[in-house]
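Hi R.,

Here's the input for the iron/sulfur cluster complex you asked about:
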Amino acid sequence: MELRHIYSKALALEDLTREEAVFLFREAPVYELMHVASAIRFKYNPERKVSWQIDRNVNYTNVCLSGCLFCNFHCRPDEKEKAYTLTPEEYREKIRTLMERGGDQLLLQGGLHPRYGIDFYEDLFRMLKKMEPSLKLNALGPPEIAHIARVSKLTVRDTLKRLIAAGLDTLPGAGAEILSDRVRKIISPAKPDASQWIAVMKEAHLLGLSTTATMVYGHIETLEERAEHLLALRDLQKQKPAGVPGFRAFICWPMQVKGTLLEKRFDIPRHTPADYVKMIALSRIILNNIPHIQASWLTVGADTAKICLHAGADDMGSIMIEENVVSSAGAGYTFDEKGIRQCILDAGFSPWLRDQQYQKRD
Ligand code: SF4
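And here is the predicted structure with iron/sulfur cluster in place:
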């Protein structure tokens, strides 16, 4: 197998095989991958522009049955001192400050709550849209959708249809971690499995819902499992009906493990900027049918994110007015509006503010 031959295929936007993808993971130098990925990025997005967004990550509850080893955020239903569910007054205040800072979206994430079924989420979405009709809801994720369907004794399709009718605008690709049941059985055994994650996304795409895809790497997975994760996303995107967005973007980040059970039980490798840049470039090269690749400045910092803009990424994500989950496991970077614009300019690109559908806002 020759690297040059694989690069030619990638630059022609042809599908790489599993063996070719794994070969790139193992053998390709990061500077060559950056060069190829950047050329592919400009095929999708020919202008030297990088998008960013203003949203707020709101965690509606921290009660969760799943108990993932990497999660410091959740608590069990019987932990009365720690458990919370946000009140209408708290939402009102969060939306007010979001709007004051020019934001337009809530990224609503929580846990697999034992009692919250479809009625809870329908009521919540309708209440939020009533509080602020212009608000966009990027809410839940495949594990929560599968859980709500189970609690409510509904199909995934009917669950999604009812949530869309109540105000769900887009579905984040949360809870993918690594789409391998070997890995999931160890790090998140009670969470819906890889096939359920894929089944929810497939149904969302059939219903025309815009989604994103994610990967959390750098823990107990193999390079083969990382490559298979990317190929599963590419193959799922191929199955979406023509004319619907499917996955608009892919976002990956290194697992944050500070103080988690995962850190205590396993020897987690140290993450390096070079690993992240390589992951971004490989994502751009392998995911030949997903239009945008996002650099996760929140977990890797501004300096590494800037390099990613030269390795295939064309989006910097949101300034995230509030974030609680990865921050509770060690991610400590912050950005304001001025800072994210300057970061993009410093990397040699023009910033442009987008909405959740990757359309320009200013
Ligand atoms: S990561 Fe999500 S599903 Fe897992 S324990 Fe935390 S809140 Fe629950």
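One thing worth noting: The radius of gyration is 19 Å.

Cheers,
M.
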